[in-house]
Amino acid sequence: MKEQTIMRKQKILLFLLLIIQFCLVTGYVYHQKYYWSENILRVVHLDSDRIKADLSPFGPGFEKELVEYFCSRHGLKPVWIRVDSFQDALVMIQSGQANLLIAEPGIPEDTWDDIVVGPQYMTSRLLIAHNQWRYPLRSIDDLCDAQVVVPGRHLFSRKIDGLEDFLGCSIDLNLVQNAGEDFFNLLSNREFRFGLVDELNFDLWHGFFPEIHKTFLFDTEYGYSWIWGTRYKDLVSLFTEFWNEMPDDPYLPALKDKYFGFFPSEKDSYQLRHFVRAIEGRLPRYMDTIMEAAGRYGIDPLLLTALIYQESHFDPRAQSRTGVRGLLQITLDTADFLGIQNRLDPEQSIMGGAMYLDYLLQQVEETGASSWDKWFLTLAAYNQGLGHLYDAMELAERKGMDSLSWSQLKQVYPLLSYRRYFETLPRGYARGFEAVNFVDNIRYYYYILHSMISLSRPEVEHLRGFLDFVPDLWPD
Q1: Alpha-carbon span 80 to 324, nearest angstrom
Q2: Could you tell me the end-to-end alpha-carbon distance of the chain, in angstroms, rounded to an integer?
Q3: What's the Cα-to-Cα distance from 256 to each of 109, 188, 447, rounded to whole Å?
Q4: Cα-flanking dihedrals φ and ψ of residue 78, to 5°?
Q5: What's the pLDDT score for residue 267?
Q6: Alpha-carbon distance 118 to 9, whole Å?
Q7: What distances in angstroms separate CA 428 from CA 392, 395, 399, 437, 463, one per listed residue?
Q8: What's the CA gap between 11 and 34, in Å, rounded?
Q9: What is the residue-averaged pLDDT of the chain?
Q10: In 3D, which of 284, 307, 304 has the Cα closest to residue 293?
Q11: CA trace torsion 50, 53, 54, 60 (10° rounding)
Q12: 366, 379, 388: which is closest to 438 by C-alpha?
C-alpha cells in the first residue's frame, strides 16, 4: 500500500513536471514569436527601388532612411533581409526570423494572419505605358486585344484580375521579374505595345527611357499604399507611437521630397533627349575644366554639370533676358566680384561659377544648414541671390517652419512673388517659383547623370572619370 502511494505521488510529480516543462516551452516559443529583447530589428522586404536606391544619389534609400529614423528613436539597429516573394516574407515574420515587414502593396489584410499593420504612409496609382512609336491606348478596351507586360508581383496580378472582370475579357499578360530596367527595356524595344506599372516607378525610370509615355492613368481605385507590418507585441506599441507622431513630424515629408520631390509632373521627352545629346556631344569639350573646378572647390562634378546644363545647355554664348551670360549665366556684378574678365570664355565661366557656388555654400553653412539641404539652399541662392534666400528663410521662421529644410523652404519661396509678402521683407520681390523650379531641375538632371553611370548606360560612359573627383563624405 505504501509503495502504491509512493508510485502515485511520483506519477503526479512527473505529470506536474511535464506540465511545467510544456508551459516553459510554450512560453518561450510564444515570447520568441511575439516579443524580442535584443536591440537588432530584422527587416524583411521584397526588392524595390524605394529600398535599395541604386538609382538615387541622394542617400541609401527612402525606406532605409525611414527605418533608420525609427530605430534611432528606440536604440535599435536594423538588419535588412531581402526575399523573392511576399509569402517568403510572411514565413519569416511568422517563424520569428524577422521582426518587421515592409509590406508588398496590394496584399489583402485578411491573409496576414495575426500581423498588425501600420497606417498608409505613401500612395501611388497604376498606369498604362506605351512606346511612342506604337499606337497609344484609345480606350481601356484596347487591352483586350493587346499583349501587356506586367511585373510578376502579387499586386499587379490582383489589379489585373479586377480589370479583367470589369472589361469582361482576358488580357494577354507577360510577366517580367521587376518593374524597373527589365520592364522598361521590353517596352523600349517595342516587344510589347503596353505595360502596367505604378506612377512612382514610372518617375524613377522615365528619365532613361524618354520614348516611353503614359497612355492611361487609373483612378485611385487602382492605386495602392505602403505599410509596415509586425506580429511582435512590443514592436506594435513602438511603431504605433511612431506613426501617431508622424503627422506632426516634418521628417517624413522632407524624406519624400529628398527622394521623389524633384520629378517633373509633366514629362518632357524632347527635353530629356536634348539633355542626353548635350551630354554626349557638347560636354566632352568642357570636361577637363569641370573636373579642375570640382576638385578645387569641393563640388561633385556631376552636380556642376547639371548646373551648367540648366543654365546654358552648354552654349558658351548663352544670354538670358536679364542680361546674364555664358555657360554659368554670370551677371556683370558677379563677374566683377569674382574677377572674371570674359563671361563668354568657357574656362573663366566654369571656374568662376564654381568659385561663386563655393562662396554661397560657405554663407549657407553659417546658417546651420547641412547635408543636401545646404546644397539645395545654395542652388536657390545661385538663382535668385543670397539676399532673397535670407528673406525666404525669415518668412519660413515667421510661419513656424524649418528655415534650414529645403522641403519646407520650397513651400515659402513662391510667396516672394506676392506683394503681401515681399513688401514685408528687406529685399522685396523675387521670382520665387523660378527658384524652386531651378533647384528641382538641377536635382533631376543630377539624378539622371548619376543613375546613368550606375546603370552603365553607353551615352555617359565618358563621365565615369568624374567619380574620382567626388569629394570625400559628399554631400557633407
Answers
A1: 50
A2: 86
A3: 25, 28, 15
A4: -80, 140
A5: 86
A6: 52
A7: 11, 12, 18, 20, 41
A8: 34
A9: 87
A10: 304
A11: -160
A12: 379
- The H or E element spanning position 198 is strand 194-198
Q: Does the reported pTM lie above 0.85?
A: yes
Q: Which residues pair with 117 in a beta bridge?
A: 229
Per-residue model confidence as pLDDT tens digits over 314-363? 999 998 887 889 999 999 999 999 999 999 999 999 999 999 999 999 99
Q: What cell was used for 143?
A: 487591352
Phi, psi of 39 (to 5 degrees): -95, 20
Strand-pair partners of 175: 150
What is the Cα–Cα distance from 320 to 310, expressed in whole angstroms?
12
For 17, which DSSP code? H
Return the active site residues. 311
Tens of pLDDT, residue by residue over 400-418, are 999 999 999 999 999 999 9
The type of residue at 453 is I
Quick check: helix, strand or coil at residue 131?
Answer: strand
Q: Tell me which residue has cell 561659377.
A: 353
d(CA 133, CA 346): 38
- Written as nine digits, the cell of 11 is 506519477
Closest CA to 49 of 62, 58, 68: 62
Rounded alpha-carbon distances, angstroms, from residue 161 to 138, 145, 407, 473:
21, 16, 39, 48
Strand partners, 216: 128
Helices 62-72, 251-260: crossing angle, 10 deg rounding: 160
Give the separation between CA 252 and CA 254, rounded to whole angstroms: 5
CA–CA distance, 244 with 95 (Å, rounded to integer): 28
- Pairing of β 147-151 and β 172-176: parallel
Q: How many CB atoms lie within 10 A of CB 334?
A: 20
Q: Please name the residue that has the C-alpha cell 542680361.
A: 323
- Average pLDDT (79-107) is 83
C-alpha cell at 81: 533581409
Task: Transcribe 233-302 into DSSP letters.
Answer: HHHHHHHHHHHHHGGG-THHHHHHHHHHTTS-SS--HHHHHHHHHHHHHTGGGGHHHHHHHHHHHT--HH
Please answer whether residues 404 and 368 qualify as being in contact, where contact means their C-beta atoms are separated by less than 8 angstroms: yes
Count the neighbouring beta carbons within 10 Å of the beta carbon of residue 369: 22
Residue 322 grid cell: 536679364
d(CA 160, CA 252) in angstroms, rounded, equals 31
Amino acid in position 440: D
The SS3 call for residue 82 is strand
Contact 200, 218 (CB under 8 A): no
DSSP-based three-state secondary structure for 43? strand
Question: For residue 391, what pLDDT band results from cuts at 50, 70 and 90?
Answer: very high
